[in-house]
Amino acid sequence: MATAFEQAVARHRSLYQRLLWLYPASFRRDYGEAMVQVFCDRLRDEARHRPRAAAVRTWWQTLGDLALSVPDQRIEVSMSEQQTTARLVAVIVAVSLSIAAIAFYIGVPAVALLAAPVAAWLVYQRRRGRYVRLPGQSKWYRWVLSGVAIFAVTLLPFILSLEGGWVWGLGNVLSIIGLLTIVAGVAMGVRDLLRHRGRATPA
Amino acid sequence: MKVPHADDPTSFLPLPSAPLHILLALREGERHGYAVMRDVERLSDGAVKMGPGTLYGAIKRLLADGLIEESAERPDPELDDQRRRYYRLTGLGERVCSAEVERLSKLLQRAGGGAWKPGRTRLGEA
Prior knowledge:
The complex is a heterodimer of chains A (203) and B (126).
Chain A: H1 4-19, H2 25-49, H3 54-106, H4 108-127, H5 140-159, H6 165-198
Helix pairs in contact in A: 1-2, 2-3, 3-4, 3-5, 5-6
Chain B: H1 17-26, E1 31-32, H2 33-43, H3 52-64, E2 68-71, E3 86-89, H4 91-115
């Protein structure tokens, strides 16, 4: 039969468990049970040293902790979701513009020939249950986007039929700079991807 | 800002207060959550008190960075609650912790080396 103290612990435990709903679902799923255990450990420990003030002291600390850590976790989850969406949009736009720009220069059949092995590799990774993830804190996609923007400017002489003269020469120089920037961005992305693979993963 | 990378422990620095204290507590051996919390209080003479949310928020980041790992072993399975989760430092966590302690030591040396003394408000102020 549970003692009066253990019944009181169960009541406090139940209340704390309800407050855990303030945290994001993923955090609660991963650490909720462990947090409840820590809370009960603290309550029992306080009761051993200061039986009368145990609940007040534990809740005082716990409420302060909730006030700080709930917004912290909420912001973290919100930021990571926003970053993932922004990166995905950036990469889709960058890849689409790159393909369009390159197709303009070398023709659609040649682009299809180049894109086929990449598409085959992506399908192969997907079938093996792997997902091509965007590297964490890299700025590689900014380089790719900048390169695409420079490259897009070089299309203007073609569009405006300004062939020949200094505009034509400048366009060629810019197109090389744009391509080099894209290559540098892709190289940074590959480097980051390899680094992420090399890093220890949590158990 | 440097991108944290396993080959360069200094790329993780400076560590925020909670992760640093957790790493210092785990330097003494593997611990479960509440033991880490008590050790942090003991190491800081009661100045740093973590609640469950702060503790596991920091643990989540340390696990993601590969600085600590969850341990499957139990010091004494007979006595301990099987639901408890134990954590220990990884090799990288040890190196990062040492690098941060060294950085703080150097900072303290510089602060105590005449450039700054308690009571002064600015570095180098006469």
